[in-house]
Specification:
By secondary structure, this protein is an alpha+beta fold. The protein has four domains: about 210 residues, no CATH class; about 110 residues, no CATH class; about 140 residues, Jelly Rolls, CATH 2.60.120.380; about 90 residues, no CATH class. Helix content is about 30%, strand content about 20%. The strands form three sheets. A seven-stranded mixed beta sheet has the order 1-6-7-5-4-3-2. Strands 9, 11, 14, 15, 16 and 18 form a six-stranded antiparallel beta sheet that branches. α4 packs parallel to α5, α5 packs across α6 and α15 runs antiparallel to α16. The longest helix has 24 residues.
């Protein structure tokens, strides 16, 4: 369920803030290739591949017969295949059903869905579209391969997975272990080898003879080619290239882009095993944005992706090298990518902040909408992810001040904060401002505590926060004439010397932003009238009721979302009161919590209020 809250009155919060997106009947598809990449970490490229064609290096264990060269339609073969449902290897019998200049196609024995496959259409799509398109943008595979065969083997089968349980299913995979002789695979590695350049494509619940079915083949073919050129590339780069290849082949946008909308601050570079569908959607959109902004011609696209795949530089370094010809770098392109992903709409100016006509009806949900001044935003962001909030400038006056503080809790993470001023009526971004003085200014101390909401699996456990450093900075900026809203983008970043591989286990970093008007037409009295000067007893009562209602029910996610929205509303009221000179509102809430007969269930709110008091004192 896609949820989006707006920090408005409590009645608005309860009356329909959250919207849902209908789930497709078929579970979402995922690629299984990353499993085999993880199993092969640390392995050198196959010996025959490193030999640069030296015929003294034995490619395979087939012997001199080279049986693949004599393979005929109808021949039967038994292959090692992987069962993703129970993480075991199985042997699958299949028969050779079709052959062409570049492919040998096998069908799983006893698979009724295979009888529905239009082999003529498949071979035509492979030879006339998928193969020439993929090799044009990403280069060629090993030729001949480990099997001394120029053709690539495709096995069409029912890949065993968890699709029957309604979970995501494995639509296909490339097993890099197939490119090694069995005696090259370490004993402690969970890899098997069929000693072929080989792709595995699912037939159930995958719909055969469809663009999505062909897109899976295009995706896996890119993996095979990428492995030949750069076996050590990071998953997020390899998967991103495989995703965008389906667009090059004409199969449209993948369904996984909707998963990215549910977790918009997902890390681009940390290929997390817990959020893979969002990973696929995000890496696809990253490359689609680069195409829309920098790679305007087909020649530029070929040059860019061929350079990226063949580069000895991996991850962010590889993108920096490939982007240098456009007088930009990964960090700058990344910021614009996220701005475009949040603001994308037809007709928005400048077009830099859109996907142009490549993707018009798509955008990420804004984190929150703030309608009063002063305002306080408290959240957390992934490294190489980004949050965006929207602030109504009606009460801002001619000049505003933005204070930022973020905890350095993960790998000496860094932050970038960008302010975008826009005229919503004209659909135009008319000003962009960076907070440039963000730096570590405090000694190690208790950080801006993470909000732990009742109803989440971790409960309301009160653990000691680790000592951290805090990056702080501020900026005072004139509100451009005509601007009626400000978008505030917070990017989590990693230092340049931290390899991408270290980011997959990194946690989110907490930050806080305080915004207030300091120019003409701004007065404390108006702010005080906007922010309640007394405690909202009804708001606290509903927060208490939801907090104590337990979490073992079907609507626990929605209840937790309401709790989070009310939690932020209370903190926003208290922060506004602080800005208006009222020091008592926080104490009112804290005293009411202490007087409650079960104060322990309100620990998260209490800790947040105490942290806000301490932070207010730190600022002053």
């Amino acid at each position: 369920m896609q949820k989006q809250f707006r920090l408005l009155a409590l009645t608005a919060l309860i009356s329909g803030l959250f919207s849902s997106v209908a789930m497709a009947a078929t579970p979402p598809a995922a690629d299984g290739t990353h499993y085999f990449s993880a199993q092969a970490k640390g392995m050198k490229a196959p010996a025959w591949q490193r030999s640069s064609g030296d015929r003294r290096v034995i490619r395979n264990t087939f012997g001199e017969a080279e049986k693949l060269l004599r393979a005929q339609v109808g021949d039967r073969e038994t292959f090692w295949t992987f069962n993703f449902g129970n993480n075991t290897w199985e042997q699958t019998e299949a028969s050779l059903a079709a052959a062409s200049d570049n492919f040998i196609v096998y069908l799983e024995k006893g698979n009724q869905r295979c009888s529905e496959i239009d082999l003529g259409k498949l071979i035509s799509e492979l030879e006339q579209n998928i193969y020439p398109t993929t090799t044009r943008y990403f280069g060629q595979e090993n030729r001949p391969g480990i099997d001394n065969e120029d053709r690539i083997t495709i096995l069409l089968m029912d890949i065993k997975d968890n699709a029957a349980q309604g979970k995501s299913y494995t639509s296909g995979y490339f097993n890099r272990g197939d490119c090694y002789r069995p005696d090259e695979i370490p004993a402690d590695s969970d890899l098997k080898s069929n000693q072929r350049e080989m792709l595995y494509v699912d037939t159930d619940p995958s719909e055969v003879n469809t663009p999505e079915f062909y897109a899976t083949i295009a995706h896996e073919l890119q993996h095979l080619i990428h492995f030949h050129h750069d076996a050590d590339e990071y998953d997020w780069v390899d998967e991103g290239c495989a995703q965008i290849n389906t667009w090059f082949c004409g199969y449209g946008h993948p369904r996984q882009i909707s998963a990215f909308q549910k977790t918009p601050d997902n890390s681009l570079v940390a290929w997390s095993p817990w959020n893979q569908l969002a990973n696929y959607g995000q890496t696809y959109l990253w490359n689609l944005y680069l195409i829309s902004r920098y790679l305007k011609t087909d020649a530029a696209r070929q040059q860019f992706f061929n350079s990226l795949v063949t580069s000895r530089k991996a991850g962010i370094d590889g993108f920096n090298a490939a982007l240098s010809q456009f007088k930009t770098n990964f960090s700058e392109a990344f910021a614009n990518f996220y701005i475009a992903s949040y603001l994308n709409q037809p007709g928005l100016k400048p077009a830099t902040y859109t996907y142009d006509k490549l993707l018009e009806d798509y955008s990420l949900p804004i984190n929150g909408y703030y309608t009063s001044f002063p305002a306080m935003i408290k959240d957390s962001v992934s490294i190489w992810g980004a949050d965006m909030s929207k602030i109504n400038l009606a009460a801002a006056g001619s000049r505003i001040r933005v204070d930022f503080a973020g905890d350095l809790t993960t790998l000496d993470n860094q932050f970038e904060v960008i302010l975008l001023f826009a005229d919503e009526v004209e659909k135009k971004v008319i000003g962009r401002h960076h907070i440039t003085n963000i730096k570590s200014t405090t000694a190690r101390r208790t950080g801006i505590s993470r909000v732990m909401l009742p109803g989440h699996n971790n409960g309301d456990y009160d653990y000691p926060a680790p000592p951290v450093k805090t990056q702080m900075g501020h900026s005072e900026v004139d509100v451009p004439k005509g601007a009626d809203v400000m978008y505030l983008l917070v990017i989590g970043k990693a230092p340049a010397d931290v390899p991408d591989s270290m980011l997959s286990w990194s946690s989110k970093s907490t930050y806080r932003i305080d915004i207030k008007g300091i120019g003409s037409h701004t007065n404390v009295t108006a702010a005080a009238n906007i922010a309640p000067m007394t405690m909202r007893s009804d708001l606290l009562a509903q927060y208490i009721e939801l907090s104590g209602s337990g979490s073992a029910n079907s609507d626990s996610d929605e209840r937790a979302s309401y709790l989070e929205a009310m939690h932020k509303q209370i903190l926003n009221d208290v922060n506004n009161a602080f800005a208006a000179g009222n020091q008592d509102l926080a104490e009112e809430y804290l005293n009411s919590i202490a007087a409650y007969d079960r104060p322990e269930i309100l620990g998260a709110l209490s800790r947040s209020l105490l942290a806000q008091k301490a932070f207010n004192q730190l600022q002053n």
